[in-house]
Design brief:
2 domains, about 190 residues, single chain
């Protein structure tokens, strides 16, 4: 590998380390003091970075909470593109949603989601984030030639799947919620043509 390749790799690692340090500072401060009591300057100082550096990694205070937004967004699209030819799209998406809901309900993630559920600003940010996820999923569905899905049907099914995730994430009985909602999604998918 060339010296410039080593430099680029090192630069990317340092950027990732800085982003991770900022996110960890934000998470810890938000959980210790409460989301509303912590400002951007508090997070930057705790992470030992300039405010401008923080904003080069995160577009807003809300984005600090949803550090893995892009990973979740890509996960939906990848569940479509990586499924086996004989796998049902709806069953693949259900498994993906179940995994996300399990993650959100885990011991490590639960305090963050409790904080999100108590904050109108964070709930609003989550809603806008989920719209982006639905749009990304719809593009993946429409792009898959094997699915033969009209774009409007792909958009509708994507919105249904994202709504199923949202309902299950906030449910006391997530599996039961998915058991009720996914047959409806499957029926809509079967009626798409």
């Amino acid at each position: 590998m060339s010296a410039s390749g080593d430099t680029l790799g090192r630069r990317e690692r340092k950027k990732a380390e800085t982003r991770s340090r900022i996110a960890e500072s934000a998470r810890r401060l938000f959980l210790e003091r409460g989301y509303g009591a912590v400002g951007i300057r508090d997070v930057a100082a705790d992470a030992d970075v300039a405010v401008t550096t923080l904003f080069s990694h995160f577009a807003s205070k809300e984005a600090l909470v949803f550090e893995h937004d892009e990973v979740f967004r890509q996960g939906f699209a990848e569940s479509v593109s990586r499924r086996k030819p004989d796998e049902s799209l709806i069953s693949v998406l259900r498994r993906h949603v179940e995994g996300m809901v399990r993650h959100c309900g885990s011991k490590e993630a639960r305090p963050i989601w409790d904080m999100i559920d108590r904050s109108p600003a964070l709930r609003a940010y989550e809603e806008s984030m989920l719209v982006r996820h639905a749009d990304s999923l719809a593009i993946a569905i429409s792009a898959d030639d094997g699915l033969a899905c009209p774009p409007i049907a792909g958009r509708a099914v994507a919105r249904f799947v994202i709504t199923a995730y949202s309902l299950a994430r906030t449910s006391q009985h997530p599996t039961t919620t998915l058991d009720h909602v996914f047959p409806l999604i499957d029926a809509a998918w079967s009626a798409r043509n």
